[in-house]
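Cross-check.
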Amino acid sequence: MDEIFRAAVAAGATVVKEAVAGDWGGYSGYFADPDGYLWKIATVS
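Predicted model, tokenized:
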């Protein structure tokens, strides 16, 4: 997931919320693409 997040930022995305471990046991973060659309990427452990 971290690699995908870094690739998105390298391609022009803006970090909205850094990827962090959640209370629910997963790991997620948000970014905005160059057009302003928000994306969430997450994993579940």
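The first strand starts at residue 14 and ends at 21. The first helix runs from residue 2 to 10. Passed to J.P. for a second look.
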